[in-house]
Amino acid sequence: MGKKKGMTAAEKREAVWGWAFILPTMIGLIVLNFYPVIQTVYQSFCKTGDFGKGNIFVGLANYQKLLSDGEVWQSLWNTVKYAIIEVPFSVVIALLLAVLLNRKMKGVSIYRTIFFLPMVCAPAAVAMVWKWLYNQQFGLLNNIFHTKTAWISDPKIAWISVAVIGVWSIVGYNMVLFISGLQEIPHDYYEAADIDGASEVRQFFSITVPLLSPTTFFIVQTRIIGALTVFDLMFMVMDKTNVALSKVQSVVYLFYQYSFTNGNKGMGSALVMILVIFIMILTFFLQQAEKKLVYHN
Fold first, then answer.
1. Ordered domains of the chain (ranges, CATH)
2. Burial 260-273 (b: 16+ CB within 10 A, else e)
């Protein structure tokens, strides 16, 4: 057998240019993604030193403290409650809007843009507007219903009020994904259903829902993860002096308190790792459910 020939000059130049193009992305991933992950895992086993220096390895002590802390379990329950409202309502409303706006109608592009606008609005602007709507003294909602409801300061309903903002903010994004999925469904199925005399409602449940299940599952899974990691919405709507904060704050909000307000990055890192493990377990069960619930052509 003859010896393998080395790379030609042209192939070497091509390889160099290839590495030159992908190197910035690789460096960005390492610096902004991989290294922070490794650092977070390491810090979760450490007690943060004074002034951020001299971390002391303490093993599982941070995890033991967190798992015995009632505030942590309350924040996890708050996050789950938020997801229970945000995910199903945002998916169902987005699906109905997508079906309505996937038809040929006048001004359909304008309607799609209007529903998608909340997604591109700055979170700070969204929070400011909704805090005004929810204001107990002069808010628009209380003026309409002629009440003095404390929408975001009553511990019993504050988490629902925040979840409503989450639904409003994400429904347009989900709608766009559903429209994309609807346009992939062959129109022949609907023509055959019309010939058989199936109503639009029957077509929706017998054709649209099954064939749209891959898109639906993708949206549900990504929205569950998004809801479990919510932070900016709660941070901007709920003031630190709000009496309902403990019944609304999410796990990531509590992580912010530990890491940046209290300067205890060890506890904060451990809390994030607990959340990551919880999401991984949930994702595993969702992947198992996909095999049974999702219809693939």
1. 70-263+270-293 (1.10.3720.10)
2. eeeebbbbbbbbbb
